Amino acid sequence: MKGCSYHYLKDRQERRELIKSLGSDKVIYKAYVDRNGSLQVHYITSNGIILIYDKVKKILITKYIARPNQIKRLYESNNKKAPNWLLKLAYEHKQEGLNA
After folding, report:
1. Is residue 97 very low, low, confident or very high in pLDDT (cuts 50, 70, 90)?
2. Residue 42: how many CB atoms within 10 A of its CB?
3. What is the pLDDT of residues 33-77, one digit of tens each?
4. Number of Cβ atoms within 10 Å of the Cβ of 29
């Protein structure tokens, strides 16, 4: 995969396969996050996946199956309320152990 962090390529193969099995879905929310002076863009998809991109380096840092509190925190960072259906989906993923 071109344009991905070394960490994501080398250390997250199992996670990549799990996310791939859930299928890709459309991005429904975007939040900008300042992480130690590096601007990141966090995208949330309608199937509960969070994709994190480095805006400056223009690379994918990681993808993960979100837990409810992670979704809630990203929405709240923009003074928004996360949709209940998305929080419920994230909770179901958590119960199934998909985001451990």
Report:
1. confident
2. 21
3. 998 888 999 999 999 999 999 998 888 888 888 999 999 999 999
4. 18
Cβ-count burial of 47 within 10 angstroms (0-12 exposed, 13-18 middle, 19+ buried)?
middle
Q: Which two tokens stand for residue 73?
A: 């925190």
Beta bridge partners of 41: 32, 53
What are the tokens at 48? 């509960």
Claim: this prediction has a pTM higher than 0.85: no
**Burial class of residue 60 in the structure, from the number of CB atoms within 10 Å of its CB (0-12 exposed, 13-18 middle, 19+ buried):** middle
* DSSP secondary structure string for all residues of 17-40: HHHHHH----EEEEEEEEETTEEE
Structure tokens at 54: 């480095």
- The neighbour count for residue 80, using CB atoms within 10 Å, is 12
**Spatial separation of the C-alpha atoms in residues 49 and 51, rounded to whole Å:** 7
Cβ-contact 60, 51 below 8 angstroms? yes
